[in-house]
Amino acid sequence: MRKRYARRLFAVPAAVPAAILGVTTVLAAATWTVRPGGPVSMKSGKLVLTDTATGAALTCPSTALSGTLKSGSGLPGTGIGSITTVRSIFCPTPLGPSYTLTARDLPWHLNVWSYNATTGVVTGRLSHLQIALSGTACTAVIDGTSGTASDGTVKVSYTNSTGRLQTRTTGGNLHFYHVRGCAGLLRTGDPATIRVTLTVSPVQAITSP
What we know:
It contains one helix and 20 strands. The protein is an all-beta fold. The strands form four sheets. Strands 3-6-8-11-12-15-16-19 form an eight-stranded antiparallel barrel. Strands 9-10-13-14-17 form a five-stranded antiparallel sheet, with no helix packed on it. The longest helix is centred in the first third of the chain and has 6 residues, at 2-7. The chain is elongated, with a radius of gyration of 18 Å. It starts with a helix and ends with a strand.
């Protein structure tokens, strides 16, 4: 009975090739230009954290982040931006206790490596991630290679025309660690994904070269 009740707390949620137009438009970029750069804020709609081994998912209404981007041209893609603050994410559930996601070991780093000049889409990665999940019925750490490594990564794409930074559910290394409780819905060592779209303000133009 307890396991059946716990399962109600989570819901099961429902390599882009290069574009060839006579020439390849997706480039592994050596240098970058960012305008205007400087301080940025980011707001999201819902965030979905999923244990892909069990299919269990926790949906959180929204979050807000802030950070900085380098400004100018001739910039390296590694460390082109950073996320310095993340508002704790409150995640209510319809029939059970609520949960909180808390960012740890900030800043997180934004690294970019390819640019599609046709679509204006930048591909990269957020790195140095560690997130704590806490609740009365379930606690865990989301990280990369261990629960204390702070080396979690998530693949992302940024669209210049919309100012939206979107996480991808492939290409990252997140796993659950130090799982306590959770009724078997989350398990230590299980792979994790985070699905969220962040609207960046002010809108940035990130291009290469």
